[in-house]
Amino acid sequence: MTVAQSPTVTDVVAVLEEHYPPAWAEEWDRVGLVLGEPEAPVRRILCVVDCVPETVEEAVAVDAQMIVAHHPLLLRGVSSIAPTTYKGRLIHRLIRAGIALYTAHTNADVANPGVSDALATRLGLVDLRPLRPATGLAAGSGRGTGRVGRLPHPVTLAELTELAARALPPTAWGVRAAGTPGRKVTTVAVCGGAGDGFLGDAVAAGVDAYLTADLRHHPASEYVAEGGPALLDAAHWATERPWLDDLATHLCGALGVETLVSDLDTDPWTIHARSTTAQREPTPRADDTEEHSR
C-alpha cells in the first residue's frame, strides 16, 4: 500500500495487518493494536520480542513513537491497569511517552515468510515447507507453524548444535541437544518459540533433527528413545529474535520510516553454569561400617 510521507499509527497497523492478518492468529491469542492514538504520526518504530520495562525504556531512549512486539502484553485478562501493577506500569509509561504498542504473535508465526522462516534462514536451511500447514483462514501459500528444510550438506548433531549456537543471538541458555553427537543430520525442522507441541509433526516429517524452545523432559526423552529426530533446545527469545530483522525491513520498505531492532536479551534465564563432578567422600559400604564398629 502507498502511504503519505508521515505515516500514522493507523498506517502502520494497515501494513502490519496486510502482511500478518489478525484472523490468522489462534483463538486464544491477543494480537493487534494494544494502545496508541490512531492518528499520531510515527517516525521511528522499535521491533521487540517482549514488551518489558527494559524494551519500553529502550523505545523511550531512541525516541520511538511505536513498538511492534511479538509477544502480547495482555495475553491474559487483567482487572486493573493501575500503575501499582506490573502491566499497568508499562501501559502508563507508554502512554506518558506517547508510544503506541502493537502485537503480531501467532499470526506472524504462520505467515510466509514468518517467524520460523527467519529461524530457518539463520541455520542456512533451503527448500522450506511448513512443519504443520495452516488450516482455516490461514491455509495455503506455504503458511503454517514451523518449517522443514534441508542443510546444504550433512553435518553431525554436534556440529549442528555448534552451528545453532553461533547463528542464534547469544543467551545464557545457549543451545542444548539430545541425541548421539555423531548422528548425521541433513533435514531439519525448526519452530520459533515453544515447539513442544509439534514433536509429533517433526517425527511425521521424517527429519533428522528438530530445533525449537521450551522442550519438556519426558516428551523429549521419549521421542529420542523411540528413534525420533535429535532435538535441539534453544532459548525462547533467541529463536524468535531473528524475525525482527525481517519485520523491520518490511516496515521500512512499506512505510519509509526508520525501524530499529532491539537486541536486548529478554530471556528470563540469565545465568548458566556447567555441572561439575563434586569431590565427595565415598559412601561407606555395609561391611566397612561393620568393621569400623568393632
Automatic annotation (TrEMBL):
Residues 272-294 are annotated as: Disordered. One of its GO terms (molecular function) is metal ion binding. It comes from Planosporangium mesophilum. Gene3D superfamilies: NIF3 (NGG1p interacting factor 3)-like (3.40.1390.30). The keyword Ribosomal protein does not apply. Pfam families: DUF34_NIF3 (PF01784). InterPro entries: DUF34/NIF3, DUF34/NIF3_sf. Residues 282-294 have a biased composition (Basic and acidic residues). Transmembrane segments: none annotated. This is GTP cyclohydrolase 1 type 2 homolog. PANTHER family: GTP CYCLOHYDROLASE 1 TYPE 2 HOMOLOG, NGG1 INTERACTING FACTOR 3. GO terms for cellular component: cytoplasm. Homohexamer. NCBIfam families: YbgI_SA1388.
